[in-house]
Amino acid sequence: LSESGVPQLVQPMIWDYAADLDVEGKVRLIEKYRRCGFSKVWFASAFKGATGANQSLTLIGHHLKNHLQWLQVASRSPADVLEGITLTGWQRYDHFSVLCELFPVAIPSLAVCLQALKNGGYSEKIKENVEKLLGMSNLEIDTFMR
After folding, report:
1. Residue 143: inside a domain, yes or no?
2. Which of 21, 24, 29, 122 could potentially form a cystine with 116 if both were Cys, beta carbons 3.0 to 4.6 Å apart?
3. What's 23's DSSP letter?
């Protein structure tokens, strides 16, 4: 792979939407990419639409845990390796599936995930900031919020 010249032309994106992703496995994968000549990698997470094809509401806690895991991967990787993170928001699982988790119900999840990434973690203060930004009185992380 390193002799092909591909590592000078592209940057790989590592996708994982799990709330319990294998942090050490991802760090090892990044090390393998580096040994092949890739200088930068991207991470791909999801703020909605990755927990079930017929899901109608977004479970914020699942996506928040995923982003916190990605922050751990970033902190255990060389400082210059991460080019960025893509927050995907899947609308359907394939072109023949029904729509799932429409964008309006996922806005709180997007806000929580972005704030967690921006602040390098999640706390009660961040929760309060998101509630204030969205004009919400009680942001529910671990239940399906309506």
Report:
1. no
2. 122
3. H
Count of the separate structural domains present in the chain: 1
**Which residues span the domain enclosing 49?**
6-134
At 44-93, the pLDDT tens digits run 999 999 888 888 889 999 999 999 999 999 999 998 999 999 999 998 88
pLDDT band at 96 (very low <50, low <70, confident <90, very high): confident
Look up tokens 């928001």; give the residue.
89
Does 146 score more than 80 pLDDT? Answer: no
E strand spans, the chain: 13-15, 41-48, 82-89
Helix (H) or strand (E) holding 19: none
Query: What digits encode the pLDDT tens for the residues 13-45?
Result: 999 999 999 999 999 999 999 999 999 999 999
Contact 67, 114 (CB under 8 A): no
Rounded to whole angstroms, the Cα distance separating 64 from 108 reads 11
Q: How far is CA 69 from CA 16, 73, 113, 141, 143, in A?
A: 10, 6, 12, 16, 20
DSSP single-letter state for residue 142:
S
Within-domain flag for 141? no
Q: Is residue 55 part of a domain?
A: yes
